[in-house]
UniProtKB/TrEMBL annotation:
It comes from the Eukaryota. The chain crosses the membrane at residues 390-408, 463-483, 503-525. GO terms for cellular component: membrane. It holds the Pfam family ThrE. Belongs to the ThrE exporter (TC 2.A.79) family. Signal peptide: none annotated. Residues 402-519 form the Threonine/Serine exporter ThrE domain. This is Threonine/serine exporter-like N-terminal domain-containing protein. InterPro entries: ThrE-like_N (IPR010619), ThrE/Ser_Exporter (IPR051361), ThrE_2 (IPR024528). Residues 202-351 form the Threonine/serine exporter-like N-terminal domain.
Length: 542
């Protein structure tokens, strides 16, 4: 089960569970009623929430470290693509050591990720700009000889609660990004520990606030997300592959199958969805091809494009970004897993197709399965190439972008910015593909999306990963991975290696474009900060 070595919470709810599970405590850990225990629990559950929401590993490290330093909790973080290890405390009696292992199936939940990021930035920023007692709503003791009524104390606490709520809602003036990093660097390592017995109720209140954020019901209903998988599959197929009306309908239906199986697979914590989904789409796609004819329905288009949510293109791109950010081990593991996932997808499609042929057409030649060469054939009857008409591109793009925003579980307040990022990426790659090869076009598109995501993050004081994912989602390599894996499974070594190299070059091109976007913005940010006397800033991150 995913989580911190404990049974997972229930599904999304408006309120947190009555008795939330806590991390396991070793014999040397603090007892449950001490402030150190509550601080450990707050840090561990925040890291778990960020991990399961699909945050990049470098962002998890940054935010968890900021929270731990703000709470004066010693911490060491080790990250892997499928797990996070936290070493809390040290050898002192004040902070006894505790190890926490976090694992599970991360989901791309941009709304939840934004809410968590805002919550921790508000808390850390308030701790940095106010005293610890004010953050925890503990009233200051009255001056000697003065008399303070209970009503005045309640009014003081009420004002502090209102200020804190305003920070959570407005997010104005809250230190974040480089500002927080500068504060961390300037803080004395011997800062006095502010945890005391009086802070236990307030730490519990902060933990309850975190549970409200984690278990809040998402804006996108489940049935909308399932329906969005169908529209996204049909839209991606129409945008990049010559399609017939039968192809669009078949891909839409198989996309619904993908969305339905994925939804229940995440609820049941299935770790083999990247084999189950392509097997089902391959089997059903083969049935469509046999019933409607290969000239009307292309097996490769319907079966491959309906598995878009499992494409290894985005994981491989994120892996290279992880390597560039210093997480070499996690990045290398992600790259290896990306290639392994492509083999799973191709294997599942082939097995599903061959199983149907063996059952429904036993006299077919041995080893025959669905046709994938039709994915590049624009001469099929009634085939239409959407990319050749800008009006057709516009007609396909907006429903596709809306579906992608729902699949990424973005909030409506994020949709305009995510749609603009997708439009910039698609427009750039369509225009540059007319002059440059696919690698250069992908690099330029990644550069444009990276610049936009950085600017959005700086201007809106918000996460840029939502815009980044939405931007590269529509042109990250996907079908090429699956084509290469099918060639590998059919012993066509030359074509499989060619496809693999093409995919790696394209993923590297996107990563180079994102890295160049960081370098391009760095001088401007440095000049701006020098003008305010704050010194240099490191290259921005997402």
């Amino acid at each position: 089960m995913p989580g911190i070595a404990t049974k997972p919470h229930g599904g999304p709810a408006a309120r947190p569970p009555a008795a939330p599970s806590d991390p396991p405590m070793p014999a040397s850990a603090p007892p449950p009623q001490t402030p150190v225990y509550h601080a450990y629990r707050l840090v561990a559950h925040f890291a778990r929430a960020m991990f399961l929401a699909g945050a990049p590993l470098y962002r998890i490290e940054l935010r968890v470290l900021e929270l731990a330093v703000a709470l004066h909790v010693p911490i060491t973080i080790a990250t892997l693509p499928s797990a996070i290890l936290l070493a809390l405390g040290g050898s002192s009696s004040v902070f006894p050591p505790q190890a926490v292992a976090i694992s599970g199936l991360p989901a791309n939940n941009m709304e939840k990720l934004q809410d968590l990021d805002r919550w921790v930035r508000s808390l850390v920023g308030t701790i940095e700009t106010r005293s610890w007692r004010e953050v925890l709503h503990v009233p200051r003791p009255p001056a000697h000889g003065s008399i303070v009524s209970d009503d005045e104390v309640d009014q003081q606490q009420g004002r502090l609660l209102e200020d804190r709520a305003a920070l959570l809602d407005e997010q104005e003036g809250v230190p974040q990004g480089d500002d927080v990093e500068g504060m961390d660097a300037a803080r004395s390592p011997t800062a006095p520990v502010a945890l005391s017995a009086a802070t236990v109720p307030q730490l519990e209140r902060l933990y309850t606030d975190l549970q409200f954020v984690v278990h809040a019901a998402g804006w996108v209903p489940s049935w909308v997300s399932i329906l969005a998988h169908g529209f996204a599959a049909a839209g991606l197929a129409s945008l990049w592959i010559p399609v017939t009306p039968h192809d669009i309908v078949a891909t839409f239906l198989l996309g619904l199958v993908n969305g339905l199986v994925t939804y229940y697979g995440h609820r049941w914590h299935l770790a083999t969805l990247d084999v189950i989904v392509p097997f089902l789409t391959g089997a059903i796609g083969q049935v469509f091809e046999m019933l409607l004819g290969a000239e009307n329905v292309c097996f490769g288009t319907s079966a491959f494009m309906s598995c878009f949510s499992f494409y290894p293109g985005i994981p491989s791109t994120v892996a290279l970004v992880e390597i560039a950010s210093g997480n070499v081990v996690a990045g290398i593991v992600r790259i290896g897993f990306s290639f392994l996932r492509s083999v799973f997808l191709g294997f599942g499609n082939q097995v599903g197709s061959r199983a149907v042929i063996a059952l429904l057409a036993p006299n077919a030649p041995t080893g025959s399965w669905g046709d994938i060469a039709c994915m590049d054939d624009a001469a099929r009857p009634n085939a239409f190439v959407v990319r050749n008409s800008w009006w057709a591109v516009l007609a396909v793009f907006f429903p596709l972008s809306l579906a992608v925003n729902n699949i990424l579980r973005g909030h409506p307040r994020q949709w305009p910015w995510m749609t603009l990022s997708s439009a910039l990426g698609v427009t750039t790659i369509l225009l540059t593909s007319l002059t440059f090869d696919s690698g250069v076009a992908a690099a330029l598109a990644g550069f444009v999306v990276g610049i936009y995501s950085h600017c959005y993050s700086r201007w809106r004081h918000d996460i840029g990963i939502a815009c980044l994912y939405a931007g590269i989602f529509l042109f990250a390599p996907g079908p090429a991975f699956m084509k290469g894996s099918t060639k590998l499974l059919t012993s066509d070594l030359h074509d499989s290696v060619s496809f693999a190299l093409d995919v790696v070059v394209r993923a590297l091109s996107i990563c180079i474009g994102l890295y160049l976007a960081s370098l391009a913005l760095f001088p401007f940010l440095r000049r701006a900060r020098r003008g305010t006397g704050e010194g240099d800033a490191p290259p921005p991150s997402f």
